[in-house]
Design brief:
By secondary structure, this protein is α/β, with parallel strands linked by helices. The chain has one domain: Aldolase class I (TIM Barrel, Alpha-Beta Barrel), CATH 3.20.20. The protein contains ten helices and ten strands. An eight-stranded parallel beta sheet has the order 9-8-7-6-5-4-1-10. The chain has a two-stranded antiparallel sheet with strand order 2-3. α6 links the parallel β5 and β6. α2 runs antiparallel to α9, α3 crosses α9 and α6 packs across α7. The longest helix has 18 residues. The relative contact order is 0.17.
């Protein structure tokens, strides 16, 4: 995915636009993404992204925690996911009880996370989800973000999510949506519009990025996030799950992901935080100031309890942020 480094004058021109708070163009994004990872320009880019985050975010680091509520074959049928209906490779079908969810939510609150995400497969009952959410909300501090990560929905459901106590929704147009998934791009965009119209905050991510995706595709999702005026932005590489159709396509490197995150920081200009997923220490010098901890099911894991698998604990994440001299919630 690499080309030769940019000429220093072009890079300076792009950085001058950043300093002047001017929106970068798709051409600018493509030039940043095309920087050779072994060039001096690579380090100039990550330094600029780091500088921007330290200036705008101070030393504040954020810990977001997610509970996966269920493990079941999903009609979204994503070819990279352990839960796709045609490639279900998770170790078991399972669903957390309300008491299990509340117990994990209490732990997340006690560990001083900044946000709690509830994640389900696309087919999970919205009625059940809303009832669970209302009980979870009772446990949360007023200033804690409460985020839904569910399937597509209309504006009526968006309003009900807000009434249940959610402050925002994690929702995206994925890489190769409608090709590597059974979900039409138009349906994903309709959900983005519904949640914004209902007054819910959008949490966005460029994901899941694989070696076959073009810089044009990646840049388009950065610009889509900016168009929705996101405060919280992320980039995630695709994790190869054995047994899924895209496993053989491989993964991008952590270095490549770090560059993409740095470019996204400059292009998207999130107002609160920049994330990379899964947590990568090197990205914390490239403008990233927020990481995720996970419990329950994880679509990048076959373990029904990702806390025993790929998932990072809240303390793991806090320790990583502290090593980068970010200060988390006390």
């Amino acid at each position: 995915m690499n080309t030769e480094g940019l000429q220093s004058s072009r890079l300076e021109e792009i950085f001058a636009k950043v300093d002047a708070n001017e929106d970068l163009t798709k051409e600018d994004a493509l030039e940043l993404l095309s920087i050779n990872n072994q060039s001096a320009d690579f380090y100039t880019l990550i330094q600029k992204a780091n500088e921007l985050s330290r200036k705008e975010f101070g030393q504040r680091g954020y810990v977001f925690a997610q509970i996966g509520l269920n493990s079941a074959p999903c009609t979204g049928n994503c070819k990279f996911c352990s839960l796709g209906k045609d490639n279900f490779v998770a170790e078991e079908k399972s669903e957390k009880s309300l008491e299990e969810i509340l117990q994990q939510a209490r732990w997340i609150v006690e560990e001083k996370a900044d946000a709690l995400f509830l994640m389900t497969t696309a087919d999970y009952s919205i009625e059940k989800f809303l009832q669970i959410a209302k009980e979870v909300k009772k446990l949360l501090p007023e200033d804690m973000m409460f985020i839904a990560n569910i399937g597509d929905f209309n504006e009526d459901t968006a309003v009900r999510l807000k009434e249940a106590g959610f402050t925002g929704v994690y929702h995206i147009v994925r890489m190769n949506e409608g090709i590597d998934t059974d979900l039409p791009v138009e349906k994903r965009i309709a959900t983005l519009d519904a949640l914004k119209n209902a007054g819910l905050e959008l949490i966005y991510c460029v994901e899941p990025i694989g070696p076959e995706h073009t810089y044009g595709q990646i840049a388009d999702e950065m610009l889509r996030a900016r168009a929705y005026d996101v405060n919280v932005m992320a980039c995630m590489k695709r994790v190869g799950v054995p047994g899924t159709p895209l496993y053989e396509k491989g993964e991008i490197t952590d270095l490549e992901l770090t560059k993409i995150a740095a470019a996204a920081r400059l292009v998207t200009r999130p107002k609160k935080s920049m994330n990379v997923h899964e947590p990568k220490a090197m990205a914390l010098i490239a403008g990233v100031n927020q990481l995720y901890a996970e419990v329950g099911m994880n679509p990048r894991d076959v373990n029904a309890e990702t806390g025993n698998g790929r998932g990072f604990s809240i303390q793991n994440v806090k320790d990583m942020l502290a090593q980068a001299e970010y200060v988390t919630r006390a």
